[in-house]
Amino acid sequence: MRKQRLPRGWTEKQIGELAAYHDQQTEEEQAAEIEAALAKEGQTLMVVPTDLVPEIRKLLSRKRTA
Prior knowledge:
Low-confidence stretches: none
Strand content: under 5%
Order of helices and strands: HHH
Number of strands: 0
Shape: extended
Distance between the termini: 35 Å
Mean pLDDT: 90
Protein backbone atom coordinates (compact mmCIF):
# COMPACT_ATOMS: atom_id res chain seq x y z
CA MET A 1 0.00 0.00 0.00
CA ARG A 2 1.26 3.48 -0.90
CA LYS A 3 1.75 6.06 1.85
CA GLN A 4 -0.62 9.01 1.56
CA ARG A 5 0.90 12.39 0.81
CA LEU A 6 -0.07 15.27 3.03
CA PRO A 7 -1.27 18.55 1.56
CA ARG A 8 1.58 21.02 1.15
CA GLY A 9 2.26 22.82 4.43
CA TRP A 10 0.23 20.38 6.57
CA THR A 11 1.46 18.00 9.26
CA GLU A 12 -0.12 14.78 10.50
CA LYS A 13 -0.87 16.59 13.77
CA GLN A 14 -2.78 19.35 11.97
CA ILE A 15 -4.81 16.84 10.00
CA GLY A 16 -5.61 14.89 13.17
CA GLU A 17 -6.75 18.07 14.90
CA LEU A 18 -8.95 19.01 11.95
CA ALA A 19 -10.50 15.54 11.87
CA ALA A 20 -11.12 15.67 15.64
CA TYR A 21 -12.74 19.10 15.29
CA HIS A 22 -15.22 17.83 12.71
CA ASP A 23 -15.83 14.55 14.54
CA GLN A 24 -16.80 16.45 17.70
CA GLN A 25 -19.19 18.89 16.02
CA THR A 26 -22.91 18.53 16.58
CA GLU A 27 -25.23 18.48 13.57
CA GLU A 28 -26.37 21.98 14.50
CA GLU A 29 -22.76 23.23 14.55
CA GLN A 30 -22.10 21.59 11.19
CA ALA A 31 -25.21 23.20 9.70
CA ALA A 32 -24.24 26.62 11.07
CA GLU A 33 -20.76 26.30 9.59
CA ILE A 34 -22.18 25.37 6.19
CA GLU A 35 -24.66 28.26 6.30
CA ALA A 36 -21.88 30.70 7.18
CA ALA A 37 -19.78 29.44 4.27
CA LEU A 38 -22.69 29.82 1.84
CA ALA A 39 -23.27 33.40 2.98
CA LYS A 40 -19.62 34.45 2.61
CA GLU A 41 -19.13 37.14 -0.02
CA GLY A 42 -16.66 36.55 -2.83
CA GLN A 43 -17.12 32.76 -2.75
CA THR A 44 -19.18 30.48 -4.99
CA LEU A 45 -20.39 26.96 -4.35
CA MET A 46 -20.81 24.84 -7.47
CA VAL A 47 -21.67 21.26 -8.32
CA VAL A 48 -19.36 19.97 -11.04
CA PRO A 49 -18.89 16.57 -12.66
CA THR A 50 -16.43 14.47 -10.67
CA ASP A 51 -14.23 13.84 -13.68
CA LEU A 52 -13.56 17.60 -13.93
CA VAL A 53 -12.32 17.94 -10.33
CA PRO A 54 -8.63 17.21 -11.10
CA GLU A 55 -8.58 19.88 -13.81
CA ILE A 56 -10.35 22.41 -11.58
CA ARG A 57 -7.81 21.75 -8.82
CA LYS A 58 -4.99 22.44 -11.28
CA LEU A 59 -6.59 25.74 -12.28
CA LEU A 60 -7.07 26.76 -8.65
CA SER A 61 -3.49 25.83 -7.84
CA ARG A 62 -2.21 27.99 -10.68
CA LYS A 63 -4.40 30.91 -9.54
CA ARG A 64 -3.03 30.70 -5.96
CA THR A 65 0.58 30.70 -7.11
CA ALA A 66 0.17 33.45 -9.70
